[in-house]
Amino acid sequence: MTSLLDVRRLTVNFFSEAGTVTPVDEVSFQLAKGETLALVGESGCGKSLTALSILQLLPRAASIGPGSTIELDGEDLVPMDEAALRAVRGGRIAMIFQDPMTSLDPVYTAGSQITEAIRAHRDVGKRQARERALQLLEEVGIPDPLSRFDQYPHELSGGMRQRVMIAIALSCEPQVLIADEPTTALDVTVQAQILEILDRLRRSHDMAVLLITHDLGIVAGRADRVAVMYAGRIVETAPTDRLFQHPAHPYTQALLASVPRLTGPLQRLSPIHGTVPNPDAWPAGCRFHPRCPYAFDRCQQQPPVRTVSDGHETACWLESPQ
After folding, report:
1. Using CB atoms within 10 A of its CB, is residue 251 exposed (0-12), middle (13-18) or buried (19+)?
2. Is 278 part of a structural domain of the chain?
3. How far apart are the C-alpha atoms of 230 and 252, rounded to whole Å?
4. CA-to-CA distance for 179 and 213, rounded, in angstroms?
5. How far, in Å, CA of 166 to CA of 265, rounded?
6. Could you report the per-residue pLDDT of 112-127, keeping only the tens digit for each?
7. At which of 110, 140, 173 does a domain end?
């Protein structure tokens, strides 16, 4: 399968008086047209920073490290200047941010923010942009689009605001959609509706979707493949069914063991002891080994990425033939 988005050895460095911190360290993954890849892991593992790096929406103190490549349809985005990147952001790659209340401008109506995105990337007039915006509001499941068009973000519910964010992201029919925790702070029913909308729009627009979440429970049935991230590195990548049935990395196993099950006998959840370390104090070797119940001496060294089966890779000494 040909990759539409190909991220290779992505490294992000933060510079300060205390030294250099690397919260994203040589991350690599591929995303094909029409595919959904879920990037999962605990908060603080570097998932959102990885997404922001793709669009180069980094703070001034941060930079993408040498040797990193982010190829979109064969074109490397890393060396692009700001003018070229503006055409990519929203036009070819769109992003849905975690909190729509802080992402939407409170002094502009929902409709005006959608039309602004359309006119920024398409040579259309106000009337055409308005018609397209109303069509998008209907497409993302907002009832009575005509009245919602003129409402401000604070007049909309959390689910409605998230739908507006999706409409803005889809306004220019991007090739890649990055959804960063798109169901944060929404109740379970609305979460399911938002995820269903994203899945339906992916199929109808044939988009590639990078779904970022810390909840493996919402990944099943929504993603084609899963990349598990811990402490700035990808520790396991596999097709979704394979990952759920045969997780290879102890961190993936621990994440799955902490997910409540609705069927089968009642079982006590197994928490992951400890917390994700700070980027300025990453452990040597396998970064999960201080929390890993299977850790042994060799874990002080960084394990190589090993192929477990077709499309299934992990970085763990337990999976090494040595």
Report:
1. buried
2. yes
3. 9
4. 9
5. 38
6. 999 999 999 888 999 9
7. 173
Q: What is the pLDDT of residues 74-96, one digit of tens each?
A: 999 999 999 999 999 989 999 99
The tokens describing 170, both together, are 């889809």
Domain co-membership, 285 together with 262: yes
- Specify whether the CB–CB gap between 14 and 62 falls below 8 A: yes
Q: How far apart are CA 31 and CA 5, in angstroms?
A: 5
Which phi and psi (to 5°) does residue 70 adopt?
A: -130, 95
Question: CA 168 to CA 105: how far, in whole Å?
Answer: 12
Domain enclosing residue 158, as ranges = 102-173
* Cα–Cα distance measured from residue 290 to residue 317, given in angstroms and rounded to the nearest whole number: 14
Closest to 90 measured CA to CA, from 121, 69, 68, 116 = 121
Number of domains present in the structure of the chain: 2
Interior CA angle at 132 toward 126 and 138, to 5°? 140
Q: Is 144 left (phi over 0), alpha (psi -120 to 50) or beta?
A: left
pTM (predicted TM-score): 0.92
Q: What is the DSSP letter of 81?
A: -
The DSSP-derived string for 116-164 is HHHHHHS---HHHHHHHHHHHHHHTT-SSHHHHHT--GGGS-HHHHHHH
Determine the Cα–Cα distance for residues 152 and 108; give it in Å rounded to an integer: 6
- In this structure, the number of other CB atoms found within 10 A of the CB of residue 322 comes to 7
